């Protein structure tokens, strides 16, 4: 959870950005040994060469202070507790495609290999029978990696293949068949027929 404190959140976001794949163009330039204009001409550097979008500014700190001062006592207490717990929050969105309201049964798998079965009563659909959202909160060390809706097929389901997150590869089999020759004049060799040539029966 973001603490809203720029001195904490912005360095973390910079570290997350550093873990992203390198821009393809930068890698190609390095492979080709192309010179970097700013490094060869230090006199053209400016503020943005030494600071990025994650640089903390006085405006950022003032915004954080104003945010805290604008909270009611109970809001400040809840916010401080949430920041201190630093839990993992997951928002799961569900769509009712079949039209029949039923409980939502979840099979949860965590990064440490543990599993959990969660039963959400059908009352979750009482405000909106078409789509709902469910918030799950787990301690910081409990990272969710897979969610399966109705893992044991206990309820009616219009489509079983959209019950997995992340989406799984759907196994299927290829059926062999022999295609009939087309009788359409568009695909026929009219020039060959006009010349009296025998049609190629092996050609598809």
Could you spell the SSE succession in H and E letters? HHHHHHEEEEEEH
Structural class: alpha+beta
Count of individual domains: 2
Largest sheet, strands/sense/barrel: 4 strands, antiparallel
The oligomeric status of these chains comes to single chain
Q: Radius of gyration in whole Å, from Cα?
A: 30 Å
Major sheet strand order: 3-2-5-6
Low-confidence stretches: none
Classify the beta-strand content into a percent band: 15-25%
Helix segment tally: 7
- Count the E strands: 6
Shape: flat
Report mean pLDDT, rounded to a whole number.
Answer: 88
> Helix amount, in percent?
25-40%
End-to-end CA span: 61 Å
Keywords:
alpha+beta; 2 domains; 4-stranded antiparallel β-sheet; two-stranded antiparallel ribbon; 6 strands; flat
Overall description:
It is a single chain. The protein is α+β, with helices and mostly antiparallel strands and 204 residues long. It has 2 domains: 6-85, no CATH class; 88-165. It is built from 7 helices and 6 strands. The protein has helices at residues 6-18, 24-32, 37-40, 47-50, 58-69, 73-85, 190-194, and strands at 88-95, 104-110, 115-120, 131-138, 144-149, 164-165. A 4-stranded antiparallel β-sheet has the order 3-2-5-6, with no helix packed on it. Strands 1-4 form a two-stranded antiparallel ribbon. A hairpin with a 4-residue loop joins β2 and β3. The chain is flat, with a radius of gyration of 30 Å. The relative contact order is 0.10. The mean pLDDT is 88.
